Amino acid sequence: MITANPISVVRMSRLIEPPPKFLPHEWKHANNVHCGNAESERARSERLTVESQRLMEKCDRATKHMQDQASKRLEQRIHDIKFWKLELDKKLNEVVSETENLITSKSRVQRALESCFEPLKVTMQCLAEREKRVGIDLVHDEVEQELMKEKEVIEGVTTLLQRTLEQTNEQIRLNRSAKYYLEKDLQGKFQAEKIDDLCSILTSTNQKIDSRAGVLETGPASNTVTPDEWEAFSDINICKAERERTNSVSLRSLVDSLLQQTATDMSLQHEATGAALGINVQRTKSAKALLEDHLSKVLAELASQERNLEALRVNMADKEGPLKVAQARLTARSLRPDVELCHDSAQSQLLTEVQELTSQINSLQEALWEAEMELRALARSQLALEEQIQVKVHSLYIDEVICTQLRQPIVIHNF
């Protein structure tokens, strides 16, 4: 048997009962409350609508103002970027132009350096050839002194040009480094201008805006720079490029004066050496002509002395006949008998004749000996003169033929 819960029974009984009835004043009060609540909600809604409208208008004005300000700032930023782009581009063109000019100067230095090799080679060959001189002509003369000076000048010029070439290469490297940073800065400015140009044309209704793009953080990124740092960065690049350009211009000016001065020094020394060589050739020719003149005289004297010797021999031979006759007469007269063996005038004359003839023959013999000695001395002098003439001929061949022909093609250029 099922037993009902008393509480449930009570509740069911209440639900079955008819709803309570309100009094008229309660009804009126309820209507007034509902109307008052509705009026309050309507008034509050109206105020909210007015406030919303005013807020929307304020937001619209603020939004428009912010967009206008952003556009102006973007335009100013684009203007600043274009200004620095012009400055960077101008400096880049100056650096590129100056680098090309410096490369041209470098090629001039290289050609000048290469042109020193042949003159130095010729100078060394001339010094080596002149060491082949023989005898008294192997002298440390003005030509050798000038050749040594020429060697020192060319070696000094070569060292100076080599050092200048190294400085030029280093300056070209620095110019290209400055050019690299200018180009890198320009590339960044170009990209920034492109981005800001795109930003400046964007509007709220622009179809290119990606509605899916998220909102970036409002704070500055850790890798951003301030406007002052941004300007300082480009200014540093420009100042560095200008400094390198100024150094490059100064170096080119130095190269110009250096090339002119070195060419002048080498040319003057080349002319001085050539002049000394010419003077030495003339001096050697004069010495050779003098030796040849003396040789001619010695040869003439040799021929004269040989004739003298022959004459002395003939004269001596001519005296032997009269001496023999006188001696024969004395011998024959010594055979006279007794008192006939008289020392008469004839005997005295014969004795005197024999003595005179003997003395003459002795004098002639002594003269013959002296003539033979002189002849040998003249022969030695002839050999010495001929040897010296050959020495001069050899020296002339070295200076006038070998050295002159070696030096003749050398031309000192002003690069």
Describe the structure.
Belongs to the tektin family. This is Tektin. Residues 288-315, 347-381 form a coiled coil. The chain has 415 residues and is mainly alpha-helical. The protein contains six helices and no strands. Helix 3 (117-130) packs antiparallel against helix 6 (345-407) and helix 4 (142-201) runs antiparallel to helix 5 (227-333). The longest helix has 107 residues, at 227-333.
Could you describe the largest sheet, including whether it forms a barrel? none
CATH class of the domain at 296-333 and 346-407: Mainly Alpha
Residue share in helices? over 70%
Segments where pLDDT lies below 50 for 5+ residues?
211-215
Large-scale geometry = rod-shaped
CATH architectural designation of the domain at 296-333 and 346-407: Orthogonal Bundle
DSSP, total strands:
0
Radius of gyration: 65 Å
Structural class estimated from helices and strands: mainly alpha
**What's the average pLDDT?**
87
**What is the CATH third-level topology name of the domain at 296-333 and 346-407?**
Helix Hairpins
Distance from first to last alpha carbon: 136 Å
The H-and-E topology, N to C, reads as HHHHHH
Beta percentage is: under 5%
* Count of helix runs: 6
